[in-house]
């Protein structure tokens, strides 16, 4: 079990803590725990989060709450009241605020997050949340290094910034040029949650449209949970393997989750819900995220019940009809 007490961390000369990159430990974990047989990994979101997200885990997710993010999985993490998560907050907006408000997150490596309202400043002042500074590019590079099995990666954009002082980055002499260069610690998260458009039951997944680092996120993480809009047959995956961006070997659980990115958009399937987006931003600004969580998370059993009771078929059909990017998509 991974907990705050036994999580392997390092502290640099500036006193900044970071997750220790250990490629050999990652390989050892994969050898011992990753399934090499073709067996179905299909399960409910409740079972997937209960099985693979532990208190104290380092959690990453791809995209965000407003655009192909794993929104239903994030809400299930909150519903199960997971604790002491260290969040890789790249390209995020609302998700980190919800996790902090719910008491799920205690640390965040910040690439970017929406900072409306007092939720972050209050948690930081009360000692419930520790921030470490990176950038969207920096966090993505760290995941790329993890996916490549490295311990660090060069970055030329963080040096000389205030963010550098609060990051796990360091400066070394480039062995080829002799010039100083910034390097970032590779990132090997405990668990990644990713929403995709299509997947088979084994975890072969396809992502269409705008993406950030879904492949790197999956390949760098010890445990990977996919939620998918649509299940496809493995024969269809094999007929066009070039469309597969996340391989089954990396995946631990597959959750069938139509509208799993709601209230965000999912390219080729549905547009974002502008009214809901305005509601959650207002809740952040007005310090009403507690009420938001009661309505959209705690008062329903799962994502399907939320969609049925809080959204409705008429709205969902409207969102499908509003999605205008269809060329090259299966829907």
Briefly say what this structure is.
This protein has 331 residues and is an alpha/beta fold. The protein has helices at 23-33, 45-52, 71-79, 95-101, 119-125, 136-147, 162-165, 214-220, 234-239, 274-285, 289-298, 303-311, 313-322, and strands at 9-11, 17-19, 58-61, 85-89, 105-110, 130-133, 152-155, 170-173, 180-185, 191-199, 205-206, 223-231, 253-256. It has a domain at 23-151 and 186-262: Glutaconate Coenzyme A-transferase (3-Layer(aba) Sandwich), CATH 3.40.1080.
Strand percentage lies at: 15-25%
Return the string of H and E elements: EEHHEHEHEHEHEHEEEEHEHEHHHH
Helix content: 25-40%
Q: What does the overall shape look like? A: globular
Biggest β-sheet description: 8 strands, mixed
Radius of gyration: 19 Å
Structural class comes to alpha/beta
Tell me the number of helical segments per DSSP (H or I, 4 or more residues long).
Answer: 13
CATH superfamily membership of the domain at 23-151 and 186-262: Glutaconate Coenzyme A-transferase
Which architecture name of the domain at 23-151 and 186-262 does CATH use? Answer: 3-Layer(aba) Sandwich
Measure the end-to-end span.
40 Å
Task: Look at the structure and give the CATH class of the domain at 23-151 and 186-262.
Answer: Alpha Beta
- The low-confidence parts are 1-6
Query: Please, what is the average pLDDT?
Result: 93
Q: Could you please say which CATH topology of the domain at 23-151 and 186-262 applies here?
A: Glutaconate Coenzyme A-transferase
């Amino acid at each position: 079990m991974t907990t705050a007490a036994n999580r392997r961390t390092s502290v640099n000369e500036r006193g900044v803590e970071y997750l220790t990159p250990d490629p050999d430990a990652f390989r050892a974990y994969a050898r011992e725990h990753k399934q090499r047989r073709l067996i179905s990994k299909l399960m409910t979101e409740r079972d997937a989060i209960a099985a693979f997200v532990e208190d104290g885990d380092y959690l990453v997710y791809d995209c965000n709450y407003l655009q192909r993010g794993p929104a239903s999985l994030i809400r299930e993490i909150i519903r199960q009241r997971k604790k002491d998560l260290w969040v890789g907050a790249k390209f995020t907006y609302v998700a980190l605020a919800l996790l902090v408000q719910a008491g799920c997150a205690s640390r965040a490596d910040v690439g970017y997050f929406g900072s409306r309202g007092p939720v972050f400043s209050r948690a930081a002042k009360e000692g419930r949340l520790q921030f470490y500074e990176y950038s969207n590019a920096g966090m993505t590079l760290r995941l790329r290094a993890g996916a490549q099995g490295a311990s660090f990666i060069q970055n030329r954009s963080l040096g000389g910034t205030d963010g550098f002082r609060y990051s796990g980055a360091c400066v070394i002499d480039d062995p080829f040029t002799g010039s100083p260069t910034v390097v970032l610690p590779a990132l090997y998260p405990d668990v990644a949650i990713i929403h995709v458009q299509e997947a088979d039951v084994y975890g072969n997944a396809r992502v269409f449209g705008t993406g950030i680092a879904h492949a790197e996120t999956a390949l760098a993480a010890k445990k990977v949970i996919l939620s998918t809009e649509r299940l496809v047959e493995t024969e269809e995956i094999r007929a066009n393997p070039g469309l597969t961006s996340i391989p089954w070997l990396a995946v631990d659980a597959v959750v069938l989750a139509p509208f799993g990115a709601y209230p965000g958009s999912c390219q080729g399937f549905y547009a974002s819900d502008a009214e809901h987006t305005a509601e959650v931003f207002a809740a952040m600004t007005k310090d009403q995220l507690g009420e938001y969580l009661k309505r959209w998370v705690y008062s329903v059993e799962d994502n399907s019940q939320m969609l049925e009771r809080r959204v409705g078929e008429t709205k969902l059909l409207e969102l499908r009809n509003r999605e205008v990017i269809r060329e090259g998509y299966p829907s």
